[in-house]
């Protein structure tokens, strides 16, 4: 399946932004006027527990290949990210 193309849009106030989540609205993490810390905070708040763990520990490949291993290492991981097989 092809990935959607990134578009540069213009907010109502004239601020140009890249629509990274493809929702036609400027989310806080897309707002170039915000500080990098504010944008990062917004992005992290949108991640599930499993996505945060995978991002912090670089376990994505291992986790996707072996749900049992990751679920055994991190209690509650299977509940936090139940449909692992569909994610890459």
Write the layout of secondary structure elements.
Elements: E1 8-10, E2 16-18, H1 36-46, H2 49-57, H3 60-65, H4 67-73, H5 77-80
Antiparallel strand pairs: 1-2
Query: Can you tell me the residue ranges where pLDDT is under 50 for at least 5 consecutive residues?
Result: 84-88
- The sequence of SSEs as H and E is EEHHHHH
Question: What Rg, in angstroms, do the CA atoms define?
Answer: 16 Å
Strand content: 5-15%
Helix content: 40-55%
Q: Give the count of helical stretches.
A: 5
Q: Reading side by side through the largest sheet, how are the strands ordered?
A: 1-2
| Whole-number mean pLDDT | 75
- The number of E-state strands comes to 2
The end-to-end span amounts to 13 Å
How is the main sheet built?
2 strands, antiparallel
Oligomeric grouping of the chains:
single chain
Secondary-structure-derived class: mainly alpha
Give the overall shape.
Answer: flat
Give the domain tally.
Answer: 2
């Amino acid at each position: 399946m092809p990935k959607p193309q990134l578009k540069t849009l213009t907010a109502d106030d004239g601020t140009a932004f890249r629509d990274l989540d493809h929702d036609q609205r400027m989310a806080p993490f897309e707002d170039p006027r915000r500080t990098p810390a504010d944008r990062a905070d917004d992005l992290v708040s949108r991640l599930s527990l499993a996505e945060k763990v995978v991002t912090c520990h670089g376990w994505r490949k291992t986790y996707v290949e072996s749900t049992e291993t990751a679920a055994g290492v991190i209690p509650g991981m299977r509940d936090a990210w139940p449909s692992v097989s569909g994610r890459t």
